[in-house]
Amino acid sequence: MQKLFDEVDSRLFDQTLSLKGLAAQFGYSEKYILQLFKKKYGETFLQYLQRRRIENARTLLAETDLSVAEIARRCGYTGDQSFRRNFVQSTSLTPGEYRSKTELKKTTKYRRIERLNLSIIPAVQFLNGGNFFVLYKF
Known about the structure:
By secondary structure, the chain is mainly alpha-helical. It contains seven helices and two strands. The protein is elongated, with a radius of gyration of 19 Å.
């Protein structure tokens, strides 16, 4: 069973990933796969897939200047309309509104640091679970 979950995670952004394809590949019924997802994650296969894709899209919107259409494609959506619909359903914001909101937070955070008018020197830099952190010494 773990191989099934690993396969889904490795193909999360693959537009051809489907419940029917997984059932054929692993020799399980679609109903059984749905039960496995419900038991492990508390959500259906489709809910899991959409949640993980939207999480990735939120990161890309906040950290890149990629177009919404390109983000939709990279997150496994075949069209940006279905991506936009799922994004709004998940966040109550359009992708553009979400990006503007995250840009505003970044700008506000940096302005606060600039107002301190201190010499900021990176003291420690480290990588933690794929996130890069810089600790500053004031």
